[in-house]
Amino acid sequence: MAEGLTNRGIAKRLVVTEGAVEKHVQRIFSKLDLHTDGDEHRRVAVVLTFLRSS
After folding, report:
1. What secondary structure letter does DSSP report for 54?
2. What percent of the chain shows pLDDT beyond 90?
3. DSSP per-residue codes, 2-44
4. 23-28-33-36 Cα dihedral, nearest 10 degrees
């Protein structure tokens, strides 16, 4: 995600289904309390959260 890959790109790299990636991404959004109705880009918010925790 931090490399700007789509779910399809992540799935290809990890050799898993695109559906599996989508499920994991949705769980990440949920755990970080990132909803679709917000003004920020959720994928960017996830990466920033990760970088700040390092």
Report:
1. -
2. 78
3. TT---HHHHHHHHTS-HHHHHHHHHHHHHHTT--TTSSS-HHH
4. -50
Residue 19's nearest CA partner among 8, 35, 34, 27 is 8
pLDDT tens digits, 8-34? 999 999 999 999 999 999 999 999 998
> For residues 25 and 46, what is the distance between their CA atoms, to the nearest angstrom?
10
Residue 15 has a CB neighbour count (10 Å cut-off) of 6
Task: Report the half-sphere exposure of 21 (CA within 13 A, side-chain side).
Answer: 15
Tens digit of each residue's pLDDT (9 = 90 or more) over 32-52: 998 887 788 999 999 999 999
The full length of the chain comes to 54
